[in-house]
């Protein structure tokens, strides 16, 4: 198992933990399947009234798709096979509130989870970045998810700067990506406290409010996501070239600047 779940039946809060710290909680195919299964199971579990999602180990919340995963792609430029497409709660029709608790790095495919959470709590040591352009890949789903939370210029900058720049938790708070910044190591506890408050309220009112908030932007979001497959299929470098760029960055200094 690459995922841990714990439910406090007294408070109604479930804690979902990505448990691949040795891989900085990168998501492989097994983890992707487990996440989808957990979200769908929560729909039927009345003991779960609010959820916190986080990553194990403290070094990373999630670093996106595991680079060792090989995903064969269709030859058509109008479609892609995205292994992360269904890792989020909304993609699995879960409308119970989900709070993301971020310690360490959150990058790339992590934004699928952050983008489908109601809000994000982050430790002051957390950082956010999107490496796609650095490795010759289109940031489509990730940028679209973040555009629901951050001003246009901030999303564009983070998406285009790639690995050269990391957004600090404080800057993420200032731009609206993060709703609360905690002391180091305090993100999960703060998120669980908030989830406990929400879970204590009448379930129907909470879930109705979640749906109302999402309905305010759902049309624009759905329309934008519909364009993502073609943009990725047309704009991504061949997988072999992406791998070369990735290996080159690993051999390099790995320097970046915080903002």
TrEMBL record:
Family: Belongs to the enoyl-CoA hydratase/isomerase family.
Protein name: Enoyl-CoA hydratase/isomerase family protein
Domain of life of the organism encoding this protein: Bacteria
Species per Swiss-Prot/TrEMBL record: Streptomyces sp. 900116325
Pfam family, one: ECH_1
CDD domains in the record: crotonase-like
PANTHER family: ENOYL-COA HYDRATASE, IP11341P-RELATED
């Amino acid at each position: 198992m690459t995922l841990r779940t714990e439910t406090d039946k007294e408070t109604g809060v479930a804690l979902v933990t990505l448990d691949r710290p040795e891989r900085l909680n990168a998501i492989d195919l097994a983890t992707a399947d487990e996440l989808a299964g957990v979200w769908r199971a929560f729909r039927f579990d009345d003991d779960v009234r609010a959820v916190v999602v986080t990553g194990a180990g403290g070094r990373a919340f999630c670093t996106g798709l595991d680079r060792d995963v090989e995903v064969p792609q269709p030859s058509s430029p109008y479609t892609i096979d995205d292994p992360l497409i269904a890792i989020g709660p909304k993609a699995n029709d879960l409308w119970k509130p989900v709070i993301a608790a971020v310690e360490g790095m959150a990058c790339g495919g992590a934004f699928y989870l952050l983008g489908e959470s109601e809000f994000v709590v982050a430790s002051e040591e957390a950082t956010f970045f999107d490496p796609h352009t650095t490795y010759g890949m289109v940031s489509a789903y990730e940028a679209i998810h973040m555009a629901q939370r951050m001003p246009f210029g901030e999303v564009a900058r983070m998406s285009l700067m790639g690995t050269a720049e990391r957004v600090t938790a404080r800057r993420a708070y200032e731009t609206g990506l993060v709703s609360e910044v905690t002391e180091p190591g305090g993100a999960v506890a703060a998120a669980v406290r908030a989830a406990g408050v929400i879970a204590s309220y009448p379930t129907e009112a909470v879930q109705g409010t979640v749906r109302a908030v999402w309905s305010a932007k759902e049309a624009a979001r759905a329309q934008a996501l519909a364009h993502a497959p073609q943009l990725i299929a047309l704009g991504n470098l061949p997988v072999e070239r992406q791998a070369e760029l990735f290996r080159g960055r690993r051999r390099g200094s790995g320097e970046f600047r915080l903002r």
